[in-house]
């Protein structure tokens, strides 16, 4: 059955009104009201985020996209489609390449990155560095603890050196920086997610911010993690974020199973304590490696280009409270397992690997 047909008409009208309201707001703020509002419509095509039909002047937004996203996500899609309108109607180039130089210029006007709705691309040089890092991360899965540790340290050192080289070159106005939302919208940002975002910012060369918005489907408040940085670093951060969350779920399952067979009680609070411990333990492991690199004189002081891009995108922001956690047996067990997490050897390999409590592991 057509997905659109399953959405009540009253909900469809509310969504279309919301899209039109957001279009008008963005048009006034970024385009000085110069764009004429297009027709807006919902698309039931699978995987369709948004598209703009220049001939009929219709902006489509995907129903699947609306069902799973926040209004922040939808506004990113609207800005992306408005960029196509700007190229056609304000720049007078209706036949320009869909994602060419004029489109990139329009995206800058609309404060959205051209890659906002697509995969993160990288240059051949960055791909070469990425392949070397993948090989080192594969070695980090060695059963020989010394070999695994050396490979993991070498991967982190290579990544740091590469970013130090890039940051030392003045690329203002020439380097493309991007931003991307990671993970699902959260009604409440738990401590484990806050610590994980801190890991990404501290160890993987991106800037992080939690965007407050609301779910389109029910209007409930929700937050999403947005990362900003150079293309290859955003890709790495996306991989690490997904990897750690998958590994965390596997570790929690194994830990609960072990306690079940030992007939040990496990409360919801115990589970939360363990989860917090895992992410904190992983953070401690990365911090130890970072300290070793500092001893070699390799110190990350930030990337001025990324910082400027981030500040322009988020000129007004507030700090988020860290949150509280409870010490105890569950937290300690989580920390031990978190310290043993090792990233798997590839940005696109998938799967969760750890030397902690994963069933069947060594």
Task: Explain what the structure shows.
- The chain is mostly helical and 362 residues long.
- It has 2 domains: 107 residues, Zincin-like; 216 residues, no CATH class.
- It has 11 helices and 6 strands.
- It has a 3-stranded mixed beta sheet. It has a 3-stranded antiparallel beta sheet with strand order 4-6-5.
- Helix 8 packs across helix 9.
- The protein starts with 8 loop residues before the first helix and ends in a 23-residue tail after the last helix.
- The C terminus is likely disordered.
Note the topology:
Elements lengths: L8 H23 L7 E5 L6 E4 L4 E5 H6 L2 H20 L10 H9 L14 H16 L5 H23 L9 E10 L4 H13 L3 E8 L6 E10 H31 L6 H28 L8 H10 L15 H11 L23
Parallel strand pairs: 1-3
Antiparallel strand pairs: 2-3, 4-6, 5-6
What is the number of strand segments? 6
Mean pLDDT: 83
Across the major sheet, the strand order is 1-3-2
Oligomeric description of these chains: single chain
Q: How do the SSEs run, as a string of H and E?
A: HEEEHHHHHEHEEHHHH
Low-confidence spans: pLDDT under 50, at least 5 residues? 117-121, 349-362
Radius of gyration: 23 Å
Major β-sheet, in short? Answer: 3 strands, mixed
Share in β-strands: 5-15%
Number of helices: 11
Structure classification: mainly alpha
Tally of distinct domains: 2
- Overall spatial form: globular
The end-to-end distance, rounded to whole angstroms, is 48 Å
Helical fraction? 40-55%
